[in-house]
Design a protein that fits this description.
Keywords: Acetylation, NAD, Oxidoreductase, Phosphoprotein. Residues 112-285 form the D-isomer specific 2-hydroxyacid dehydrogenase NAD-binding domain. GO terms for molecular function: NAD binding; phosphoglycerate dehydrogenase activity. This is D-3-phosphoglycerate dehydrogenase. Residues 8-310 form the D-isomer specific 2-hydroxyacid dehydrogenase catalytic domain. The chain has 322 residues and is an alpha/beta fold. The chain has two domains: 7-99 and 289-319, NAD(P)-binding Rossmann-like Domain (Rossmann fold), CATH 3.40.50.720; 102-280, NAD(P)-binding Rossmann-like Domain (Rossmann fold). 37% of the residues lie in helices and 14% in strands. It is built from 14 helices and twelve strands. The chain has helices at residues 16-24, 37-43, 60-66, 85-90, 103-119, 121-129, 155-165, 180-185, 193-196, 219-224, 242-250, 270-273, 289-307, 317-321; strands spanning 7-10, 28-31, 49-52, 72-75, 94-96, 147-151, 170-174, 189-190, 202-205, 230-233, 256-259, 278-280. It has a seven-stranded parallel sheet. Strands 2-1-3-4-5 form a five-stranded parallel sheet. Strand 6 (147-151), helix 7 (155-165) and strand 7 (170-174) form a beta-alpha-beta unit. Helix 1 (16-24) runs parallel beside helix 13 (289-307) and helix 5 (103-119) crosses helix 7 (155-165). The longest helix has 19 residues, at 289-307. Bound molecules: 3-phosphoglyceric acid (3PG). 3-phosphoglyceric acid binds next to loops.
């Protein structure tokens, strides 16, 4: 094991719990959020580790400039698409995340959005605030008996499936690394994508943003979907093509969408956000006090354990430590 982590930079908003645990273990902590690239170029090499959420982008340029000084990038959360992991490995910098800590919160938000879509809750609430009493404008549909497709049957996807089964939804799913038996154990019918598209009333994506998942839902796949399909993305912007989805909504094919994530963030494609059939939230999947306390303490604990010689939650340990 290489030299210990003595100085940590916290570069995004993280609960105080993280600072407290690190300090209690003799680690010096600097909290400086919303740094520009130039500020990060200067501050990263002055620390042994940096802790981020999704706001700060840890690019190849920053990692190369910090090589030999920065030892670890800690992600207080799940997705590491804001961290150039191959560049971190190439510069012998470990990348750690806390993949278990916020999955329940992300799953709960997904279920909230699916139910909100089925009953037009945000649109109806906005209409009330505008002084209207428009009961006829918001006829909904039960989710009971309808088919939910979960693309990506990891922790979050599975938790969504189990919760919405309690509402009587039939759940079908796709995941290239899950077996039929594993899916069946959760009452999920595992199907190839080609069989998913025409059956789903709701499609929710729970995959990381990688080459194979970028643009996964696009004009071709939307055309194969059932008329009236609703699309939910609480995973990452870029998995669903927003322009193609707007076209489908305008054509009366897709019936609604609920998105918590965008490319870029904050989103610039206003036609999508402003669309009356779209519910948009500002990347709130992990924004619960419960999840934030968990990610904050877990990432701090992992760094403390690292100093004791135990490697926990490290994504690129094989590349860096060997
Ligand atoms: O990947 C994650 O952990 C979630 O998208 C939450 O991201 P955040 O930590 O920026 O809220």
């Amino acid at each position: 094991m290489s030299s210990p982590i003595n100085k940590v930079l916290i570069a995004d908003d993280i609960e105080q719990e993280c600072v407290d645990i690190l300090k209690q273990n003799g680690i010096e902590v600097t909290v400086k959020t919303k740094q520009t690239k130039d500020q990060l170029l200067e501050s990263l090499p002055q620390h042994d580790a940096v802790i981020v959420r999704s706001a700060t982008k840890i690019t190849a340029e920053l990692l190369a400039a910090s090589a030999g000084k920065l030892k670890l990038v800690g992600r207080a959360g799940t997705g590491v698409d804001n961290i150039d992991v191959p560049a971190a490995s190439a510069n012998k910098i470990l990348v750690m995340n806390t993949p278990q800590a916020n999955s329940r919160s992300a799953a709960e938000l997904t279920c909230t959005l699916i139910l909100a879509l089925s009953r037009h809750v945000p649109q109806a609430a906005a209409s009330m605030k505008a002084g209207k009493w428009a009961r006829k404008d918001f006829m909904g549909e039960e989710v009971y008996g309808r088919t939910l497709a979960v693309l990506g049957l990891g922790r979050i996807g599975t938790e969504v499936a189990v919760r919405l089964q309690a509402f009587g939804m039939r759940v079908i799913g796709y995941d290239p690394i899950v077996t039929k038996e594993q899916a069946e154990a959760k009452n999920i019918e595992l199907l190839p994508l080609e069989q998913i598209w025409p059956q789903a009333d709701y499609i929710t994506v729970h995959v990381p943003l990688i080459k194979q998942t970028e643009n996964l839902i696009n004009k071709d796949t939307l055309a194969k979907c059932k008329k009236g399909v609703r699309i939910v993305n609480v995973a990452r912007g870029g998995i669903v093509n927003e322009q193609d989805l707007v076209d489908s909504l305008n054509a009366g094919h897709a019936k609604g969408a609920a998105f918590d994530v965008f490319e870029p963030e904050p989103p610039t494609f206003r036609e999508f956000i402003d669309h009356p059939l779209v519910i948009a939230t500002p990347h709130l999947g992990a924004s619960t006090i419960d999840a934030q306390l968990r990610v904050a303490s877990e990432i701090a604990d992992n760094i403390v354990q690292y100093n004791k010689g135990t490697v926990l939650g490290v994504l690129n340990a094989r590349d860096v430590l060997n």
